[in-house]
Amino acid sequence: MSMTSMTVVPIVFRFPGTLAPAANHVAILGPWNGWNPRAHVLAKDPQGFWTITLYLPPGRTIYCFNVDGAYWLDPNDDGRVPNGWGSEYSVRYVGASGPTAAFRSPEPEPDRREEWRKGKSTPV
């Protein structure tokens, strides 16, 4: 399949600014950008959320956030997978092959907020 005929889906990724209120730089890293922290930098919106829209092909993608040089998992991901380095990557299902993920709620699920506050899930 050529790149011109490949279907892509717009996906909004949001990182809650309340998790790292002093952050100056938030990026998203994944295999689609070579895990490069300069390739996809998020912008902070007036509500304090760091956001970016990426256009990805349908299927499962793995990723993490880079917050001022520290790796963070997404509190609103669709799941986690081991990354081979002793921690995990976030998972997002894009389009028809999994849950629709065009928008995620701005806050972590209640049962995971405490682990984020205690720093148990922050670094990848």
What does this protein look like?
The chain is mainly beta. The chain has a single domain (3-117), classed as Immunoglobulins (Immunoglobulin-like, Sandwich), CATH 2.60.40.10. The chain contains 1 helix and 8 strands. The chain has one helix spanning 110-117; strands at residues 9-16, 26-29, 43-44, 49-56, 59-67, 70-72, 79-82, 88-94. The strands form 2 sheets. Strands 2, 5, 6, 7 and 8 form a 5-stranded antiparallel β-sheet that branches. A 3-stranded antiparallel β-sheet has the order 1-4-3, with no helix packed on it. Strand 3 (43-44) and strand 4 (49-56) form a beta hairpin. The N and C termini lie far apart (33 Å).
The chain-level mean pLDDT equals 81
Largest sheet report: 5 strands, antiparallel
Strand portion: 35-45%
Q: How many domain regions?
A: 1
Low-confidence stretches: 97-124
Distance between the termini: 33 Å
**What is the name of the CATH class?**
Mainly Beta
CATH superfamily annotation: Immunoglobulins
